[in-house]
Structures are given as C-alpha cells and as structure tokens.
Design brief:
By secondary structure, the chain is α/β, with parallel strands linked by helices. The protein contains 14 helices and twelve strands.
Length: about 400
C-alpha cells in the first residue's frame, strides 16, 4: 500500500554504533514518513536490531544524529572528535612540509577545532533538552485545549473538566519525546517480566507517565487486550500462562497503549509458528490502519516484508546497501547482496524449487573499492544503492533497459 504522506517523522542521519572495534552500524541514513511501514532486512548480525535500539535510545550512539518529529533526540560525538584529530594531524604534516605557511595553517586548524567543539556542544544540548522542549509543547497544547473547554463549562461539568485538566497537565509535564516511539521485542518470552501480571506489564508505561487513576488504567488495559485478540480476564494472569503468540500480543498491547507515533517492531514474528505469524502481522496491519501508526519493521522473512512494507532498506555488515520501495526492490534489485537475499526466498512449488538457483554474494569478488570508493547514491528516483562511480553507471544502464 503506497503512502502518500510526505511528512518525515523519523530521520536517521549518518548513524554509527560502535562497540569497541566492532562497527555494528556504520554510516546508515534513511527517513521514515508518517504513516508508512519501513522494512529493514538483512542476515543475522548485520545491525538491524542495533539500529532499532539506537533509535529508541537504548544505546548512546557513537556518531550521527536521530531526528524525531523534527527534534534531535540522539547525537553522537565521535565524528566531531575524529575531525579534530584529523585537523591536528593534517596541520603537523602540512607545517613540517611548508614551514613558511605555519601561521595560516595553524589558524585554519584552530578554526576547524572551534567549529567541531561548537557542534559537539550543540549535540549535547539537543540530547539533554529534547524532552524538555517536547514537554513544553505538550503542556501548551493541553492548556489551549482545556482553557477553551473550561470557559464554556459550568457546575459539575466544570468540576470534572478541572480535575481532568490537572491530571492531563501533570502527565504533559512528565512526558518524554522518546515515549512516542515504542518497541515490540523479538523474544516474546524474555521481553515480559515473569513476576508481573499482564495488567501491570501493559499499564507500566501509563503509570510511569503519571496516570494514577486505577479505573482509567483498568479500562485502557481491557480495551488493549480486546484490541489484540485477548480478553479482559487475562489481565490478572502471568506471562508463563500464555502461548508464544499470546505473549507477543501482550507485547503489542504494551506498546500500543502508549498511543505512540512510531513502533519499532524488532522481528516480532520470527519466534512464532507460521500460522501465528500471519495472525500477528494481520493484527499489526489492523492497528496501523486504526491508529495511523508508522512502523519500522525489522525482519528476516522477505516475503513477509514485501507484503507488509511500503519501502525496504537492505543492510549488510552494518551498512545500508540498498533502499527502494517494496515493489521496486523486488522488481529491480541492483546490489549483488540484495539479489543474493531474494534468491534465497523459497516458494511452495516443488518444480520451481528444484530449478531455483541460489546466488552467493562474495564482496571481495563483486567489488573493487581499492581506488574508487563507494557511497550511498540515488540511482533512480527513490532507489538508493551503495556503489562507486563505475557501479553507479552500470546500475543506471541496467535500469534503462
């Protein structure tokens, strides 16, 4: 289903997430528009889950920026530090080769260092104050809404609205921007606390946000349980009393009750039986249409991703190697790794399966990046590929046929 909305809800800009020498995510950039499903695919260990966890701020990112609703919620400083280090090294080399220009070179180096330090301060400030800015926006919106209602109300109606206004105002002041992003975790068993009842699990976010009325909490939990195909009687039970599919539904309810604008679904069906997978995917589709959710859908199963996603990004070894609309990617895969992934999709046709040719991807044999370095480029409108100049020309020629 094509998404016509062009408003960018999430922007990931040159995201890097390093763990020591391991580059789990390396220079990944993409945008997710409001109301669309963006699929992120790739083999195990390619950095899909790390990308999702970095966006939701479970990790402090190494470098790059994450913008949500136009506000920078995460910023890494390593790239600024690297630029400062390079400026110092370049100055040492250049001043030893051209000592007559030492003063001008030093001034240039100091200018670069000053600029990078300014950017680092900005990154720190944006991360520190993003929630405060959002809380101020929410508080102003609540005041505007209730002040208009209170001027028209009187008697019992006014008393009820005043109590509601105080409650909503308290929640708005305590709100955090990142709570507008919720995550459905891969493992439906490990992601639920075995010592908490279903009601406590689903309502935990509301309680943290400042909701104190138990009647409101119970009502919302029951609504969510019915919405995800469970019943209110399940609220008093514990996670071990449910099947894998039911546990994943509890995880979905926990994320949707916060009324988020973006859900990161981290392989929500990979641990489930095939029949249950279809139920959970259909549930996510229904919730998407009902609440206008935007979803970052991380998965292995390409046939599921094709059915569910508007656009797809393909990751390999921490890098985004190709990104296009779902139909375009399946019709015209360009990067050799994407072709390899698509060739691995099995079909329920024994005759086809006997003849199916698996394409293996060997980066050393496929690419020569010794001189001509690759970058992420737009080969056709909306179709991006990690390639160098020679490959860029080749891919454009492929598409023109």
């Amino acid at each position: 289903m094509e998404n016509k909305n062009q408003e960018v809800l999430l922007k990931v800009d040159h995201l890097c997430q390093y763990f020591g020498p391991t580059k789990a995510v390396d220079d990944v950039s993409f945008e997710i528009r409001k109301g669309e499903v963006f699929g992120l695919v790739g083999e195990s260990g390619c950095g899909k889950t790390t990308t999702g966890r970095s966006i939701i701020k479970l990790y402090n990112i190494t470098s790059g920026s994450v913008f949500f609703k136009g506000i920078r919620i995460a910023a890494g400083k390593q790239s600024y530090k690297n630029t400062i280090e390079k400026a110092r090294e370049d100055y040492k080399t250049a001043s030893s080769e051209h000592p007559e220009n030492a003063a001008a070179l030093k001034a240039e180096m100091e200018k670069t260092i000053s600029e990078q330090r300014r950017l680092m301060k900005e990154a720190d400030a944006d991360q520190k104050h993003c929630d405060k800015v959002y809380a101020q926006q929410r508080t102003a919106a609540v005041k505007e809404k209730y002040e208009a209602l209170l001027t028209k109300a009187s008697g019992e109606e006014k008393t009820r609205l005043e109590a509601e206004y105080r409650n909503e105002l308290r929640k708005a002041r305590k709100t955090r921007l990142v709570t507008q992003i919720q995550m459905i975790f891969q493992d439906p068993i490990a992601s639920l606390d075995p010592r908490m009842t279903v009601k406590e699990i689903i309502s935990e976010g509301l309680v943290i946000q400042g909701e104190r009325d138990d009647q409101v909490i119970t009502q919302k939990v029951n609504e969510m349980l019915e919405l995800v195909g469970l019943v209110p009687e399940h609220a008093t039970r514990y996670p071990h009393e449910f099947s894998g599919g039911q546990r994943q539904r509890i995880g979905v309810a926990r994320s949707v009750i916060m009324n988020p604008e973006l859900i990161i679904a981290d392989e929500p069906v990979s641990a489930l039986d095939v029949s249950v997978q279809a139920q959970v995917i259909n549930l996510l589709n229904e919730l998407r249409e009902k609440f206008g959710l935007t979803i970052l859908f991380i998965a292995h199963d390409l046939s599921v991703v094709k059915y569910f996603s508007d656009r797809i990004g393909v990751m390999y070894f921490g890098k985004m190697v190709e990104m296009a609309s779902s139909d375009e990617l399946f019709a015209h895969p360009l990067h050799p790794y994407t072709k390899s992934l698509l060739s691995a999709i099995p079909l329920p046709d024994p005759v086809y399966e006997k003849k199916r040719q698996r394409i293996t991807y060997n980066p050393l044999a496929e690419h020569d990046y010794s001189v001509d370095k690759p970058s992420f480029r737009e080969v056709a409108p909306g179709h991006f590929v990690q390639c160098n100049d020679a490959e860029f020309a080749k891919y454009q020629q492929e598409l023109s046929k």
